[in-house]
Amino acid sequence: MKFVSITKENYNQVAEIYKEGLATKMATFETQVPNWDQWNKKFLPFYSIALVLKNEVLGWATLTAVSPRAVYRGVAEVTIYIKSSDQQKGLGKLLLDELITQSEQQGIWSLQASIFRGNDISIQLHKKCGFRVLGYKEKIAKRDRIWHDTFILERRSRVVGVS
Description:
alpha+beta; Aminopeptidase; 4 helices; 35% strand
């Protein structure tokens, strides 16, 4: 297995995994898979990685800036998806640990995640990688006319922004 950047060339596989996540109705408030240009504008390009085995994308993770303001340049939101057939094999931890390492190398001091109530596997994954639950947002948004709560998790770097 290896980590590679997400590019236009491997985006179709990334999009298929994202589509699987959309189908669960517990991974995102989005309802459609974006095209490459939309996706590439949303996520930070230096922090978009895929876990690949024999040219097959097994999962991906990326970061989104939480704000364009300079004071928040070291704060980003995590997005991670694992192919449904490869979930609960430890790949999510490998991928999230690598994303954390890469983000710290680039000066990111705080990572956050917003996870649907009931998505216990994702919450536990983030906790294993050093995130803590800050709280939750009650009925923060609707998906398919149903209100959903999201847990807010945060991981503060122990090596970046400590002084």
